[in-house]
Automatic annotation (TrEMBL):
PROSITE patterns reported for this sequence: VOC
Single GO MF annotation: dioxygenase activity
One Pfam family this sequence matches: Glyoxalase
Record's keyword terms, sorted: Dioxygenase, Oxidoreductase
Domain VOC: 16-150
Organism of origin: Streptomyces brasiliensis
Alphabetical list of Gene3D superfamilies matching this protein: 2,3-Dihydroxybiphenyl 1,2-Dioxygenase, domain 1
Protein's UniProt name: Dioxygenase
Length: 151
């Protein structure tokens, strides 16, 4: 496994986060939440609705997506023993790193949409050191997200 030698310096051989799969009750509604409240680009929603793909996704950035897998898919998860039981299995949270302006815009959109948000914390440690500000929110399926920005 290759890693970056310094924060912020990425190469084609650097290990990156490709996707996170979230179990959701309604993938179309979840995609709508991530588009409207979080500001992420929905992917494959029409194809999912037409029955052409198993789940839609939303784009976090050019390299990373969140897959919005319906809980009904859990029974088909057979790649490893115990995989089917992973639906609803807890993940503490997923953290999104944003610019200062995007951080403020996200918080405003969430509050405008009556999505509860935590207080703003300062100096939380993460992949790039201590974040200037961070807060938490949940999606409609209970998945917890942290939003942060660095100095």
């Amino acid at each position: 496994m290759s890693t970056a030698t310094s924060v912020g310096r990425m190469t084609n051989t650097t290990t990156r986060l490709d996707h996170v799969v979230l179990w959701v009750s309604d993938p179309v509604a979840a995609a709508g939440f991530y588009e409207k409240a979080v500001g992420l680009e929905p992917l494959r929603v029409a194809e999912f609705t037409a029955g052409k793909v198993s789940f839609p996704s939303v784009r976090v950035n050019e390299e990373t997506i969140l897959d919005l897998a319906p809980r009904t898919m859990a029974e088909r998860m057979r790649m490893l023993p115990g995989s089917a039981e992973s639906a609803g299995h807890p993940v503490n949270h997923v953290c999104l790193s944003l610019s200062s302006g995007d951080f403020d815009a996200l918080r405003a959109r969430l509050q405008e949409g009556d999505v509860p948000v935590s207080h703003i914390a300062h100096d939380s440690y993460g992949a790039r050191g201590n974040a200037t500000r961070s807060f938490y929110f949940r999606d409609p399926d209970g998945n917890v997200f942290e939003a942060r920005h660095y100095g």
